[in-house]
Amino acid sequence: MSDCIIVGGGISGLLVARELAGAGLDVTLLERGSTGREASWAGGGILSPLVPWRADPAITRLVGWSQAHYAALSADLAAQTGIDPEWTPSGLLTLGGLDAEMALAWAQDAGQRLEALTPPEALEIEPALAHVGTCALWMPDVAQIRNPRLLRALRHAVEQLGVRVQEDTEVRGIAVHDGRVRGVRTAQGRFEAPTVVVAGGAWTGQLLSGLRHAPAIGPVHGQMILFRAAPGRLRRIVIRDGRYLIPRRDGRVLAGSTVEFTGFDKRPTSAAHDELYDAALALVPALAEATVERHWAGLRPGAPAGVPYIGEHPEVAGLFINAGHYRNGLVLGPASAHLLADLILGRAPIVDPAPYGFAAARA
């Protein structure tokens, strides 16, 4: 029997496994498919909400903690596993339809560097842009992570810490007796532990639907395309009207993303491909010379107001949840995992956990 079972092998589950195993717990991680191959892999890796000044304050608090620790996390994983997650401070340039006064006030309160730029100043920061319009906002400290590399590094790291990772193991139910969790039920049999963490992404609400106070988490479909361009073609992360471009170190450029409500259907569509392609070229016309290398889709774990559930179930002792991060799973991952480990291990929490609990008001 393990000390803890973690259900879900995405960024949330792997980071919780790293925290708990690093604290000396015996941990088993169960993944319904392959580790890191759902929303965590499908996302872009921007280490910021797309429009951070409009985010719920509960999200902002976790974002700040994660941003302050990501560079060290990436370096530690690279040293431990030999896989560099490529933490890169690209900066974030936001164009069009902006409330500059709101953004500047938010940045001052949040302790973030943010500048309002004229169009010539924005083009100096990112010369590849077709045009800027009337306003641009620049956040020079925003970084990105190459999420597939991060997930591979985390998988290696947790196994080095002794975590048992079992893939192709779908959890079909939570075993509860006398108000306390006892383990989980799978097609391969029952796994027992006094603590269970559900970090099942978009499937979390479905898995816990048989319990009272089930979390309001469901799938939100998102599609992306990947250009293979020359290194340096684009230098900065650029966002306009919900569409973004992310330049990787090797020259590849990610273009995303759609927001669709199609249930658990995550098939990519030609209409989304064309929409993303047109939006990318409208931002950076030189991408017309690049090849579209890939097109894929994933399912984000949507929750009310985008605020994740992080904490213990109110009626089942030992049953914890770390899910519902919507579009911010990568940037919230380190803080969410650390906060959940604080609650499980009885440590002083890094932030007030109340906004993330089952009883929190969620719009």
UniProtKB/TrEMBL annotation:
Pathway it works in: Cofactor biosynthesis; thiamine diphosphate biosynthesis
Keywords linked to the UniProt accession: Oxidoreductase, Thiamine biosynthesis
Entry GO CC: cytoplasm
Keyword Ligase among UniProt keywords: no
The keyword Iron-sulfur is annotated on this UniProt entry: no
The organism's place on the tree of life at top rank: Bacteria
GO MF: flavin adenine dinucleotide binding; oxidoreductase activity
One GO process term, biological-process aspect: thiamine diphosphate biosynthetic process
Domain FAD dependent oxidoreductase stretches: 3-343
InterPro entries listed in its UniProt record: FAD-dep_OxRdtase (IPR006076), FAD/NAD-bd_sf (IPR036188), Gly_oxidase_ThiO (IPR012727)
Pfam family, one: DAO
Protein name, as recorded: Glycine oxidase
The organism's taxonomic lineage, starting at the top: Bacteria, Pseudomonadati, Pseudomonadota, Gammaproteobacteria, Candidatus Competibacteraceae
